[in-house]
Specification:
The structure is a homodimer.
Chain A (H helix, E strand, L loop, with lengths): L11 H6 L7 H16 L6 H8 L13 H26 L5 H18 L1 H6 L3 H7 L1 H23 L8 H20 L10 H19 L2
Helix pairs in contact in A: 2-3, 2-4, 4-5, 4-7, 4-8, 5-8, 5-9, 5-10, 8-9, 9-10
The structure holds a DNA duplex.
Chain lengths: 216, 216
DNA sequence: ACCTGAACACCGTTCAAGT
DNA sequence: ACCTGAACACCGTTCAAGT
């Protein structure tokens, strides 16, 4: 980078513009990673690109993240926060309904979020990232989908669904929600000409029929 | 797995040792890509590694594949061959059963193959690879899963499943099979302590309960 | 304390030169 | 026709030096 004019680092604004982020760089890097990934795909974003976008030197990110995958893990953690919030909100909104309806609300929230936030979804569906992030990320995800499974089990207990093994309803419900999200993200709906919103509606319709089919 | 050693390398020893593969290099590169990916993960295999494993210079692969992703696309095409063969075999084996049983046979074949061949599965679930490979790969996959969907629709027509919209049963069945495979490949079963074989059996159990639940 | 910028080893890809 | 091996631009990562 060719730089003739000196940045006069005694002004706060000027320093920030020149790359000093006074403790905020870490967050900025995550923000830019997400933004660039949304533009060109996760694989296409390099740490150097992120550094440049944030206005810092190529080595700067490594003061905050030991490796590139650590940076992606930070994105994943942030995504997990957002997903957990959505699921929690869905659960609260359906609080006074029956377990099967609560399962539905969470499953819809799950794949809707995945379809609308494919980058987040990819980061914490990536083995390398999740392995790096350590057990906490996986546990949080497990807990989130576990809540879905719990509703399914409750539905069986209350006789809302046909006879069967609770754990299998739970996994089926989970695989279905996951499958719907992943079918879209992996581009399988593209052949069908479905955009984001249509994919969500289609997902809901499929889920509803599934629920109705297992109901009794 | 799906490949055997190449037939009778009679006089090829000298040239092969020198790196000359007399037209066979293309195939060797695909074989080595798969092998290295199984050892260390798809992201960790570079074209240079593959070249070295095949005993040729770093630039040699680019005479056969214009880009790295083209090499991966060749792996994906080979994977698609294998998957199509498995599904076809499953369909033939269940030829004299009812459509619901045929759907089951194909769904099991689908996720079993995915669980047992995660590298193949990843290659043709990758957007970049599939986009490069062109419409034919996607169409073949679409046709393969379309056969599953057809059985589901036939099952509805014959009154084997509860009332509903055929297309939604088809998508649910597909999302379920896809979700089961992907849950394992993305490492979600690892938390549950399930290995490959247990994942397949668990998948079958879940699928069977799903089928029973929608049956009438 | 936080960032720069030069360095290193690596990678995808190209291409003139060899057989 | 097929491969070599030296390039080039890029990338992840490190680190001494600056503020």
């Amino acid at each position: 980078m060719v730089d003739d004019d000196k940045p006069t680092p005694d002004e706060a604004d000027a320093t920030a513009a020149r790359g000093y982020h006074h403790g905020d760089l870490r967050r900025q890097l995550v923000v830019w990673t997400l933004k660039l990934a949304e533009e060109r795909g996760l694989d296409e974003v390099s740490v150097r690109d992120v550094a440049k976008a944030a206005g810092v030197s190529p080595g700067a990110p490594f003061r905050h993240f030991p490796t590139r995958v650590a940076l992606l893990a930070a994105v994943a953690e942030q995504g997990m926060d957002a997903l957990a919030a959505q699921l929690e909100a869905a659960l609260v909104a359906a609080a006074r309904e029956n377990p099967l309806r609560r399962y539905r609300a969470m499953a819809v929230a799950y794949f809707t979020w995945g379809i609308r936030n494919p980058i987040y979804f990819q980061t914490f569906a990536s083995r390398a990232v999740v392995d790096y992030a350590g057990p906490s990320l996986r546990e949080r995800h497990e807990q989130a989908v576990g809540a879905m499974a719990d509703e399914m089990k409750a539905a069986l207990r209350l006789g809302l669904v046909r006879r069967g093994i609770a754990e299998r309803y739970a996994i089926a419900g989970r695989a279905l929600a996951y499958g719907i999200a992943r079918l879209y993200i992996d581009g399988h709906y593209a052949t069908l000409g479905l955009d984001e919103n249509m994919a969500v509606r289609e997902g809901e319709a499929v889920l509803d029929q599934f629920i109705e089919s297992i109901s009794r």
